[in-house]
């Protein structure tokens, strides 16, 4: 009999990775498409700079509520049921955006979309972590963030095309998020429940049945049923003992890695315009930089097992922070230099991005894994939403140079915190990593 965590990678693992990538893809898509849509929607809905910032941050605010709610629900009721319900909510709200007539209702709909996206993070990543062999867990969970950048890149391309449909192009942009959501709902249908979660709830026979159906009769459930005999752990443990320290680390590094990134994505055309890239070049530049974010994430997915989690996060924060510092110190540089510095940031920050879901899924036990991912996601979005909201104000009042300097400071803070607190979990089973 072979332990589930020592099994070779099979077609089920690969399919589950693709299905679980739906949430990150939609997050990247809906967050990025708003940056292009605001070019038309802003004047039509008479948005002030404050409302533009609030609309840009609305999905992030929603993720704050959805992350912890989804984590709590998936730990309590299981991963399978919620795996498609959250995407159905995204479909309905995306379509509703087409008919919105004022800025308030646009904010409400994007807030609801953010709640659904945030709920998907702990649901999908917990399910994937609990099915995946330890040898492949880091690369496969890390690969989910790649789909965030794929979604963002597709959004910029689609947005640029739909801008030419006329004054209602922005409506089609915002409604277009429903199409990929429908595809992922269809793909996710029939996904089994996590055997780890079933065993933890005392439903060992059901867990064994899932393992046999997915992996065959030679797969062992022993490691999965271990939690069933241990101490019952509730969400309060997230704030106690060693778990509290882990939650602090994950929340801070996650926040520091996404504040600059989300702010740039929400307002990339405006930021590039402020740096001297105007008109269509700003949107094209946004798409190119997004592709480089994708490249950086893929590079670190390939390196995460070779370098280890700790080295990946330290190098990622350090060199991406240096790149942002260069943009802050030399904002009037030639366009080629600006693009090269943005490219360096995009590639190097990929390491911190892929670890956003790897670390919390490895450092917490089955009973609270979903809640941990959800809470860390929620807490990180407080800073990300505030940063996104303040970008238009910062560009006007402080200028592009100081805006980039602030982004660099936040990124380098992530390096310092990770240097002090980041553990190494490479090669450990989920039980071993949670017991560090």
Automatic annotation (TrEMBL):
Belongs to the major facilitator superfamily. Sugar transporter (TC 2.A.1.1) family. It is found in: Cell membrane. It comes from the Bacteria. Signal peptide: none annotated. It is a multi-pass membrane protein. The chain crosses the membrane at residues 21-41, 53-74, 81-100, 106-128, 140-158, 170-187, 248-268, 280-305, 312-330, 336-359, 371-392, 398-419. GO terms for molecular function: transmembrane transporter activity. InterPro entries: MFS_dom, MFS_sugar_transport-like, MFS_trans_sf, Myo-inositol_Transporter, Sugar_transporter_CS. Its main location: membrane. Pfam families: Sugar_tr. Keywords: Membrane, Transmembrane, Transmembrane helix, Transport. This is MFS transporter. Residues 16-426 form the Major facilitator superfamily (MFS) profile domain. GO terms for cellular component: plasma membrane.
């Amino acid at each position: 009999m072979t332990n589930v965590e020592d099994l070779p990678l099979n077609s089920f693992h690969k399919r589950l990775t693709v299905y679980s990538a739906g949430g990150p893809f939609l997050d990247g898509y809906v967050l990025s498409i708003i940056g292009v849509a605001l070019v038309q929607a802003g004047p039509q809905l008479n948005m002030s700079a404050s409302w533009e910032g609030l609309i840009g941050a609305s999905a992030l605010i929603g993720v704050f509520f959805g992350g912890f709610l989804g984590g709590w629900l998936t730990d309590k009721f299981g991963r399978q049921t919620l795996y498609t319900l959250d995407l159905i909510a995204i479909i309905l709200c995306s379509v509703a955006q087409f008919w919105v007539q004022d800025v308030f209702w646009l904010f409400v709909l994007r807030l609801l979309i953010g709640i659904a996206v945030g709920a998907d993070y702990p649901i999908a990543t917990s399910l994937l972590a609990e099915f995946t062999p330890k040898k492949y867990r880091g690369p496969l969970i890390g690969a989910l963030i790649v789909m965030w950048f794929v979604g963002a890149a597709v959004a910029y391309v689609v947005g640029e095309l739909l801008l030419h449909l006329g004054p209602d192009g922005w409506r089609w942009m915002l409604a277009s998020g429903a199409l990929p959501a429908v595809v992922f709902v269809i793909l996710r249908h029939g996904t089994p429940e996590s055997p780890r979660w079933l065993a933890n709830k005392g439903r060992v026979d059901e867990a064994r049945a899932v393992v046999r159906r997915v992996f065959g009769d030679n797969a062992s459930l022993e490691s999965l049923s271990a939690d069933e005999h241990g101490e019952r752990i509730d969400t309060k443990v997230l704030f106690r003992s060693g778990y509290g320290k882990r939650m602090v680390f994950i929340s801070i590094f996650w926040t520091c890695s996404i504040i600059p990134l989300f702010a740039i994505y929400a307002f990339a055309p405006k930021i590039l315009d402020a740096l001297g890239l105007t008109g269509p070049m700003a949107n094209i530049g946004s798409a190119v930089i997004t592709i480089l974010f994708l490249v950086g994430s893929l590079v670190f997915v390939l390196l995460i097992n070779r370098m280890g989690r700790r080295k990946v996060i330290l190098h990622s924060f350090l060199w991406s922070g240096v790149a942002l510092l260069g943009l802050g110190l030399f904002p009037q540089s030639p366009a080629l230099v600006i693009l090269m510095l943005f490219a360096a940031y995009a590639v190097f920050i990929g390491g911190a991005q892929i670890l956003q879901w790897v670390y919390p899924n490895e450092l917490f036990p089955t009973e609270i894994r979903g809640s941990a991912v959800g809470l860390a996601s929620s807490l990180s979005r407080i800073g990300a939403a505030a940063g996104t909201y303040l970008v238009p104000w910062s560009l006007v009042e402080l200028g592009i140079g100081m805006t980039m300097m602030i982004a660099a400071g936040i990124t380098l803070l992530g390096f310092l915190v990770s240097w002090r607190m980041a553990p190494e979990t490479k090669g450990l089973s989920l039980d071993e990593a949670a017991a560090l």
